[in-house]
Amino acid sequence: DANQDGFGDFNLNNLVPGLLNGITTYDVSFHETLTDAELDVNPIPTSVNYTTITPLMQILYVRAEDTITGCWNTLPITLNVNPSPIAPINLNPIVVCDQDSNPQNASTPIDLNQQTAAVLAQQIGAAANYTVEYYSSQLLAEQGTAPIINNTNYIVSDGATIWIRVELIATGCYNIGSFQVV
Prior knowledge:
It is built from 4 helices and 10 strands, in the order βαβαββββαβαβββ. The chain is mainly beta. The strands form 4 sheets. A 3-stranded antiparallel beta sheet has the order 2-4-5. Strands 7-9-10 form a 3-stranded antiparallel beta sheet. 13% of the residues lie in helices and 32% in strands.
């Protein structure tokens, strides 16, 4: 749930293989009420993602009908919308003087971890529930690959943008933000 509203989008077609377990003679449909599933009316279109209509958790009803015998059954399925961490916003830039062996090249080591407390302060719940990682690009932060490993002594140039990925450990949900280095 990237925008913290409790609603999420689901591709219901992705659930069908697990529901059928290899059976090829069943037609599957999804319904918002048990009555609709039993009467086989008002199926949810599966050609587009389904957006939940109740926040955080919603029960849908699956109808599986054997195309040969006409026999059918229903099954409730729960869609859970996990809250996403809050994207780090309004972070102050890290301002530092060039203090390395070449103080005129506008490049110096910094401790990126000085932003961690500000990122965690924006989150809901205990700081221990989250991981915070730093990245050199937005794409890497989105992918969660190649984080900056030496984040206590990272060589950076003036005007660089550092990307932050904050992840909720329990769910793997994440959000990203950025800050500048001056």
